[in-house]
Protein: Methionyl-tRNA formyltransferase
Organism: Pseudarthrobacter polychromogenes
Amino acid sequence: MRVLFAGTPAVAIPSLDALVEAGFDIAAVLTRPDAPVGRKRVLTPSPVAARAAELGIEVIRAARVDAEATARIAAVNPDVAAIVAYGGLVPPAALDVPRHGWINLHFSLLPAWRGAAPVQRAVMAGDDVTGAVTFLLEEGLDTGPVFGTLTESVGPEDTAGELLERLSRSGAVLLAQTLSAIGAGKASAQPQAGEVSLAPKLTLEDGHLKWSHPALAISRQARGVTPEPGAWTVLDGQRVKLEPVRLRPDVTTLAPGALALHGKSVLVGTGSHAVELTRIQPAGKKMMAAADWARGMASLESVVFE
């Protein structure tokens, strides 16, 4: 079965590799155009484009699936399209090209967390269990019938990045199994059932920790935005980046945003109990251990995060 693979970030690479290893004929890879990376803004292929080049697979670069991209997709004559975090909508004209349609690997238990940031939103919401599904892509936002499902526990210290890495590998197996079943004529897609929730793309503001919120909510927020866009706070009018914090329910005397040393730990007050900073990146400096940063401060008692 000839497969068009659509994906852009590194999280899609395990799926591409799994389909190659399973013996599928990858007709081409659809990915977003090269983008500027780093301080020097060097134009760089997407991770999926780079992997496709290593595998000797034709690459179709398109910021959106317009008429030109659709024509190129049709020209490679795919039987089915597999899509994993491509980063753009697929219009009806393109949906109709493969005879088996487009099969989307989505990192949530649909209809929960439809949208661009399902893993991040699940962590931020405090979900204990999430997962991944394969479903038939339709015009609606992640509304199509589901072929296969897997579940994954969310650990109390999991970041969105760690959870997504696990799901990308287990989901790759699910995607290969789904395409095999479709090719054998044994696949059966079932309508989605359950409560719908939305997972819009994260913005920089989603990483701004509000110290008046309860400690548990702050911890979930910080883990959900790690590694991107990252957790941050404001100190002396400047944005300061933070890595995920640890809960410290034993300390309840700090006001929200106030800092204090507790042994070798740097604590911050919240709307409930304190949290412990792990690593911090002051403006213009590299990420460092919170204790090292604290040693360079004249007095933590006068420091307040906003």
